[in-house]
Every structure is written in structure tokens, then in C-alpha cells.
Design brief:
There is one protein chain. The chain is mostly helical. It is built from 5 helices and no strands. The two termini are 41 Å apart.
């Protein structure tokens, strides 16, 4: 069993004359990059918020998912703006990154 996992993490050299065709990988990466660079939609944010388990705390703030689920009509617009500004600035706000 150890040999199986060891072989997964050992680099293998190309055989002389062997060439890897990465053209298809580039097109996949380009398509994925286009999708990843799209602005976040409110729908994507809400879907992610709904995926938080109701009794689980999503972070150090200790606020459980059920609070977001129950009071989204009150906190939703603020959360949309906050999360979008976070993504647009390409960084985690220092207040969260403690």
C-alpha cells in the first residue's frame, strides 16, 4: 500500500522525444478564468450563505448560520455589499483576518 501512495508523489521524467500537449489545458484554464473573473452575483452569495449549516458558526464571530438564514431580509444587503467589496479589493479585511 505504501508503494501505491509513494508512486503518486514521485515525479516522473518524460521519455526522450515525448511531448505533452497542453493546448486543451490552456483552453480550459481560459474558460475557467473567465468565469472566475466575473463579478459575484447576489444569487451566488445567497447560495453560499444558505449552505452554512444552521447550528455551525462560520467564523470567529460566533454567529451561527441560522441567524443569517432567519434575518437575511435585514442583513442581506449589507452582506452583499461587504462581500462584493471584499472580493473587489482582492483581500480579506483586517477586521476579519484576526
Amino acid at each position: 500500500m505504501g508503494d501505491h501512495f509513494q508512486s503518486m508523489f514521485i515525479s516522473h521524467s518524460l521519455v526522450d522525444g515525448e511531448v505533452w500537449n497542453l493546448d486543451s489545458v490552456t483552453s480550459i484554464l481560459t474558460k475557467e478564468n473567465t468565469n472566475l473573473c466575473k463579478p459575484l452575483s447576489n444569487e451566488e452569495i445567497w447560495k453560499a450563505m444558505k449552505s452554512i449549516k444552521g447550528a455551525k458558526a462560520p467564523g470567529g464571530d460566533g454567529i451561527q448560520g441560522v441567524v443569517y438564514h432567519s434575518y437575511w431580509d435585514i442583513v442581506g444587503n449589507t452582506m452583499y455589499m461587504f462581500i462584493k467589496s471584499w472580493f473587489n479589493s482582492h483581500g480579506v479585511p483586517s477586521v476579519i483576518n484576526k
